[in-house]
Amino acid sequence: MLILLILCAAVSCIACGVLLRYGHASGRRYGQRVQRFHAGHVPRLGGVAMMLACTAGWAWMVGAERFLEIPNQIRLSFVAALGWWAVATIAVAGGVGEDLTHRLTASWRLVFTVLAGAAATWLLGLSIPSLGIPGIDTYWAATPWPGIALAVFAVAGLPHAFNLIDGYNGLAGIVALICCLALAYVCLSVGDRQLAGIVLVLAGATAGFLVWNYPRGLIFAGDGGAYLWGVVIAVASIQLVQRYPQVSPWFPVLLLIYPVWETLFSIYRKLMRGQSPGVADALHFHQLIYRRIVRDVFDDDEARRMLLRNNRTSPYLWGFTLLTVLPAVLFWSNTTVLVLFIALFVLSYVWAYVGIVRFKVPRWLRR
Question: What's the number of domains the chain is made of?
Fold first, then answer.
């Protein structure tokens, strides 16, 4: 698996370097938007590099032993690899289309992720077999359609959740990397080396991208990168629960509760203000931290001041994410404990959000 990580990281890193060299023209088309917190023209093509790395990684899992005679205990069948690649490509295509043209509407991007979810249920047999709730599960298992519908919804929605938190250098990338490693750990705990290898491919691709993205911010993941993270992590999470009944269906919910709740809370907040959920604003949790906590950064160059504040925002959210990932990994089979930690996170998030909005931030947190 170490070879797989190194291979994907190397491919992603090299591809990012090539795109950085020849992709600046795409960055010039990205205008001044309400969610822009960087200076200069930065290409948003990191998703392309990571998709190339994932393609190389999944191809390695298929052919390392068959064609190169290299011992491979995480071998993936060609049909399964093709299914994963097709599902990821459908979602990434919609994101990259927006990254290159900046004209693809949110509705059309949602169509691409819904198609990816539908393709996952067809090509990979994806379904959520249980909710882990006694009484409801009896009715849930009576017909396959609720499980299939929820699987499509999860695969279609998580890419947009990752896109929502992709606002600062290293933020969404490190969150995705942590989630991939946590998923790989649980996969290995139940003895599924193949599924662990699939998410480690994405982890390696993300690591190679982060070499250029944090702390210098030379290239961004873009919608394509966010959609790749969301689709692969969603499909892997559902397959893990689907294959192993001992894994609670609430494990991936707690693991991914930060981007998921950020999305749900954002929708609620905008509806309460009479806005469309698709309208961009600068009131997300990470943006409030940037504006009201990471403030005192001094440098003669304005662009460098913005970069330093950008880089100092992400670690706050990394720590926030670890507060949910750690209990998810420790209690991945205990539904009751997982639900309690989910409720605790929601309460903590709302309390912190309201405190920041009302300027009730402890002095030791402000920089």
Answer: 1
